[in-house]
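Hi, here's the filled form for the chain we discussed.

Project: internal
Contact: R.S.
Residues: 483
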Amino acid sequence: MIELDWKPDKSSPTPLYIQIKEYIKEKIEIGEWTVGTKIPPQRTLAQALRVNRSTIVAALEELIAEGLLEGKSGSGTKVINNTWSLMTSTPPPDWNSYVQAGIHRPNLPTIQEINKAEFDPNIIRLGTGELSPDLFPRKMMKQVFNRLSDRIDSLGYEEPKGLLFLREQLSGYLKTIGIEASPSSILIVSGALQALQLISIGLLQQGSTIFLEKPSYLYSLHVFQSAGMRLFGLPLDENGVQTKTIKEQKKRQNAALLYTTPSFHNPTGILMSEERRRELIDVCEQERLPIIEDDVYRELWLDSPPPPPLKALDKNGLVLYLGSISKTLSPGLRIGWVVGPKPVIERLADIKMQTDYGSSSLSQWAVAEWLSSGLYHQHLEEVRKELKIRREVMIDSLQKHLADIATWSVPKGGFYIWLRLLPSLSIRELFEKALERGILLNPGNVYDHHATQYLRLSYSYASLADLNKGIFRLSKVIRQLIS
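And the returned structure, exactly as it came back:
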C-alpha cells in the first residue's frame, strides 16, 4: 500500500502537475515504488494531495508518455519501468513478485490499518491491548536502571536459554503461582509471540492442526498458517474452552497441540474456571495432546486471583507455559519466557540462537532486577487498582450509551470487553466510520471471521476522559449506521 508523505507547494512557480510528476518520478527512481506497484486511483490521489483531478491526470499522462507508468482500463495505473531500465535492455527485477512469493503471510488488511492508525496522536484507541502511558512506572524504572550500572559487567551475548540470573528469578516467581520449574527448564524469548514462532517451526510438522478457542487472538496472526499449519476452533462458554469435542476432533483433524489463554482470554476476557482447567488437563492427558498455555494476562486480575495455571496441574510434562511482562509492565522490553520439558526448551533455544542470537541482554538484566528487587510486585498492585477504575469507567459509559443496542459481560481481569452489537450492521463500515471520527476499534472478525457483530474493546490504554468520549462517539456512529 502506497503512503503519500508529501503535498505540492501551491506557492511555488512550478506548476502543480509538474511537482506531482517529479515526486512520483523520484519515488520510482529511488526504488520505493518498484516495478508492478499500483498507483492509487486518480480521485484518491487528488484528495490526498489536495488538487483537482485534472492536475493528477496531467501528471500521470506525462509519466505514461515517458514509459514509467502504464494505465489500463479496469486495472488502474502501475509502474512498468524506472529511469535506469529505460537505458538498458535488461528489465528491472519485479520486487512485487518476490513479496507475493514469501512464505510468511501478510497481516490481515484490517490489522495493518490498525497498526498504522495506532501511531496517530489524535486517535482514541478503544481496542489497544496495552497499558496506558499514564501507567508507565517512571520512578520505579529509573530505580531499576540506576541499580543495573553496578550489576552489569558486560552486555555481550547471553547463553542460549537466556540470562541465568533472570531464569533464577523467574523460577522463584513461578513457584508462587504453583509451577515448579528449574532455571534449566526456562527459555527467555522476545515476547510470547516469538515463543509461538519458535514452536511453529521447531516442534510441528507441516499439515498439522492447532486446536484453539474460537474466537482467538491467534486468528489475527498468521504465525502457524505461514508454517503450513491449520487452525481449528473449539467453542467457548462462560467457563472457558469446551472440552467435550476434543477427543473426537483430535482423530478427525490430525491435531498436534492445543493453544489456550485460560486467564482473561483475548479477545473475550473469559476466565477459565478451575474445574474446566482440570477437565482440560485430564482430556489432553488421555489424548496425549500437548497444550500451549498463554498466560500473559494472569497477573492482571481485578477481583480475585485466578485459579492455578494449567502448568501447575501438569504432572506429565504436557504443558508449554508462556509468560511475559509485555502486558503487565512494558511491551518495549520485549521479554517473555517459555517453561517446559528440557528437551523441548533446548530445541527451542537452539532455534532462537539461529534466529536472533538471544534476546536483548539489557532488557533481560532489567526484568531480572524488577523481579529481584520486589518492585514488580509493587507495580502489579498499582496496575490492578488503576485497571479496576478503568474497567468501571468503561462499563458505566457502555451502560449509559449502548445498553439498548449492545450486550457484554464484565471481565474479572485483563484488558478486554467482548461487545456484541444487537442491530445488524457492516462491521467494516463501522470500523471505517469510527476511524473518521477519531476512534480506533478492533473488529471481532479479526479473531473469528464469523464474529461480524462483535468488537473487542479495551479499557487499558485510553485515558479515562478518552474512554468516556470514545464510547459516546462510538454510540453516535452506530446509531447513524442503523438509522
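Let me know if anything looks off before we file it.
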